[in-house]
Every structure is written in C-alpha cells, then in structure tokens.
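Why does this matter for the project? Reviewers at the last site visit asked to see concrete outputs rather than summary tables. In response, this paragraph embeds two records directly. Each consists of the residue sequence and, immediately after it, the corresponding structure tokens. Nothing has been edited or filtered.
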Amino acid sequence: MLSGGSCVSIYSEDKYVSMDLDFIETGVSSRAKVTMCMENLGFVQDHRYFKHPEVELLVEFPAGPLGIGNEPITQFNEIPTAVGVLRLLTPTDCVKDRLAWFYHAGDTECLEQACLVARKHVIDFDEIVRWSAGEGKAEEFEKLKRSLISTQGN
C-alpha cells in the first residue's frame, strides 16, 4: 500500500511533489521476493531504496505493519490505473500520517502537507480528534484544527 509523501502528491494534485514512493507490505511477502521483483523490473537496490536508470523516483518498502502513530490502518483507498489498482491511504489517514510527523518529529513541512490534502478533500476531523487524543496530542490538534479546517474546500 502506498503511504507517505506520494499520497500527499496524489491528494494535493501535485501541489506537493514527493521524490520517492513508500510502499508498505500488507501481505505475506519476503524482502527477497520484493527485491527479486524490483530487479526483474530493472531496479537496483541502493541501501533502503530501489533506483531505476530511467525513473527519477526512488522506491522504498518500509517495514510494516501499516500504521499511523500507535494505530494500525484498517481502511484504504483504491485508485484504478491503466496497469491495475493502486491501494493507498485514505485522505483522512494521509492527513493523520503527516500530522504524526509533525507531532512526533516537529516537521512543519508535514503540517503544510496535511493542509494541502485537507484543502482538496473532505477530511473526517472527528476521526483526527480521536486519533490525536490516542497519540497524546489532543491539545496540539485543537491548536491546529482551525488552520486545517479553514483550508477545507479551498
């Protein structure tokens, strides 16, 4: 499943551009199988990334399980493409993912990315309130909520 900044790129209609694709394994597949598959596609492993001579983007397969902060992901979005279905975080989970980086690492760029997604999509703010409380960040979210909600629908 696609996660991270690439979801922001998709949901913000490229207002933010990520230079890597983060795929989290959701099934039972060994790292050796993933590596073999990527190599068959012409990618070469360079530390934690896979690179391809004809592709600018890096591909990474961070260790699972898929979760945001302390919580597993149970829902996902699907986007049909010419080569198959792309599974990715929902817009609400994408906002939570970016907020997790802001909450726990102080990454203000991720807060801006959360606003970009909220600007283009309907976000379940009740869910983000609930999740933020579980992360011990309810008070911080209350300070941010106005700026996120004010971007909604713009």
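We now turn to the second protein, recorded in exactly the same manner.
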Amino acid sequence: MRKFVYAARLVQDRKDGGYVVTFRDIPEAVTQGDTVEAALEEASGALQAAIEARIMDGMDIPSPSVSKRGERLVPVPVQTALKAALYLEMRSAGISRVGLARRLGMDEKEARRMLDPRHPSKADRLERALAVLGRHAEIRVA
C-alpha cells in the first residue's frame, strides 16, 4: 500500500519571522508561511510541485517516513496522489505509457496526459488505469 502523506518540519524563522517548512523525504520541497496554518497550506503546494516534478523528470518518489516528534503530517492533494500512484505502479511493473495506453484501449497521447501534472485528469480514469495494473485507490478522511 502506498501512502502520500509526508512528515514536515516547521522551524520558526527568528530573523525574518514566520515558519520555514521542510520535508525529510522530499528535500526539494521547501516553503514558508507567516503563521503555522499558512506554512502548512504552503507546504501542501510545495509537496505537490515536488512530486509532480519527480514524475515529469522520471525520478523516484520515496515512501513517507514515520513522523518524528514535533513534525506535522502534510497530505499530497488527491489528484496528485493518484497520478503518483499510477506512475509508481507503471515503473514497478515496467510498463511504458504506450503499454498503458494499449491496456486501456486509448492512444498514447491520452495515456501521456494522465500523468501530466498540468492536465486535469479525471479520478475515474486514473482509477481505471490503476485497476489494469492490479491496484485500486482508497481514500481515508482523517
């Protein structure tokens, strides 16, 4: 089971004010906010952008580590989590976008858009793609 909720560390910026947010597992995701709430909201966007960049660059997306004392959990937005799950399952199975397109009965362009962070893929299409790879999505509300 893959999870897309990452531990964030918030550090108060004594010089400039506000809070700086970093992620151990996704070190390029760094942001800040004037308040804890604002910093956590920005953290979600930074995490999303970093994971989308990893997909576009063909990089690995690490599994989240267990949070340490004082860290806050930040979820990846649902659509990005679905795309990341599909991307990781395709890599794990050694299936290209062309191979996925064939399995889904669509053209390669459609399969490419499914993983494109700028394309608003529908959740049911992403779920269908996961299903042809033998997986399914589960959503948990915390």
